[in-house]
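Quick start: what a row looks like.
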Amino acid sequence: MYRRHLLGAAALVLARPALAQDLSGRTVRLIVPFAAGASTDTIARMFSGKLAEALGASVVVENRAGAGGLIAAQTVARAAPDGTTLLWSGQTAITLAVMGRDPGYDILRDFTPIATIVDNPALLGVRPAAPWRDIGALLAAARNAPAGGLRYGSGGIGTVAHLAGAALLKSVNAEGTHVPYRGANQATLAVETGEVDFAFAISNIVIPRMQQGAVRVLLSTGARRIPALPDVPTMVETVSGGVVVTSSASIVGPANMSPALVERIHAAVNRVVNEDSALRETLTREGGDISLSPTPAAYAASWADEVNRQKRLVEISGARVE
């Protein structure tokens, strides 16, 4: 979404007198819409420690998994706008809002976009013993499958993985049965055990399982091939009308946060990523693309654009809340 910005720019923002309002000495809840122990949760916890140092606050990760991220999104949408309740991976809130059922919040009015961090593509995984050696063979099987089609898993209804699976099957006029799980780790495990034929999950979840020999990766939803997986094609280059689907790690707050507070948190996020090479390496080694927003206003603008993009993706995929 954005390219990395230099630390110097973040430092200048931090130095502005307007940033007198801060969270020093306070406890900030970072609401994560994934189960504890998931790869994304691990990264959020690593990041939270660094963010706490930058803000001079205590940042506590609070897992609110379930309903595809709806519980987490509602928690933040209903929170006080004082900066003490923030949402990790705000994109989940967008996806849920465009899936055809009222999520209990207005995606454009009830949140404050603060900062983006990294984009991760989804990867399609099958069990190593599966008969499909490449994505062409899998899609042929999907087209020729009996009523109900192949079974595909995701980390929940309305997740990036759900939309990617639905869009892929629709692109080849194939049916499929969506099997939602309580998180991407469970969906990936379902592939390994043969409970589903394939599943999409975010790259930082799939790649470690691939390295352990538990899954085989056939497809990526990124805009370009992942350097660590140069032989794995993207959906865009594989099927007509293929789409780019990524999951953005980001920080989002409730509506009506003060501009000074938003800028303070945004600058702290950029400072953490720019200064910490170990964190950057962790974010990128499993398919991530660092995407720091240059300003809160830039992220706010892209937030509205992402709502429209997700609406189009839902239309293409035909996915709906079941």
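That is the whole record. Residues 18 and 260 are 6 Å apart (CA to CA). Strands lie at 27-32, 58-63, 85-88, 111-126, 150-154, 176-180, 198-202, 216-220, 246-254, 289-290.
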